[in-house]
Amino acid sequence: MSTEIELPPGDQSLLLVDDDKAFLTRLERAMQKRGFSVRSADTVADGLAAVEADPPAYAVVDLRLEDGNGLDIVSALHSRRPDARAVVLTGYGNIATAVTAVKLGAVDYLSKPADADDVINALLATGEAPPAPPDNPMSADRVRWEHIQRVYELCERNVSETARRLNMHRRTLQRILAKRAPR
């Protein structure tokens, strides 16, 4: 359920950088429908080139990309256009990287999966009032499942290695992986 959000007048250019093509495409369409002029990139190199060519007013950048760290893009954007508003997305949230992202110029730091409304609220937040809590947050079971899936993918779908890193018995992990995602 999307809410109508009115964009402030002025430059509505938005750069999206994420190596998850399906997520990038969905977010790109959603942001265009909400009035942004969207460019997208799926690597750090392409993101840096886009910032160098024409620094956008807004950016949404994934923290970990196949060819490097999305914070390099945030830093480049902040140095080229200090008034730009950037949001960092990540499935690997921790306090240290959140602090680093803000120091480099990000205005917010969101955990994946984030929907378009969450992203827009973070991009347009003025800091006068705390953002409203999400209308339908993920369940704790879903958050756990997402984390396990991400570690599994990072371990190149190796069940034994994933189980070792998660400090979990291999058979327990196999049962979890065989089930459907919780809601």
From TrEMBL:
Keyword terms, alphabetized: DNA-binding, Phosphoprotein, Transcription, Transcription regulation, Two-component regulatory system
InterPro entries: ActR_PrrA_rreg, Bact_response_regulator, CheY-like_superfamily, Sig_transdc_resp-reg_receiver
GO molecular function: DNA binding
Sequence positions bearing 4-aspartylphosphate: D62
Sections of the chain in a coiled coil: none
GO process terms (BP): phosphorelay signal transduction system
Thylakoid is among the record's keywords: no
Residue span, Response regulatory domain: 13-127
Keyword Phosphoprotein part of the UniProt annotation: yes
Any single Pfam family the record assigns to this protein: Response_reg
Known function: Member of the two-component regulatory system ActS/ActR acting in acid tolerance. These data implicate that a two-component sensor may be involved in pH sensing and/or response.
Matching PANTHER family: PROTEIN PILG, STRESS RESPONSE REGULATOR PROTEIN 1
NCBIfam families to which the protein is assigned, alphabetical: ActR_PrrA_rreg
Name of protein: Acid tolerance regulatory protein ActR
Organism phylogeny: Bacteria, Pseudomonadati, Pseudomonadota, Alphaproteobacteria, Hyphomicrobiales
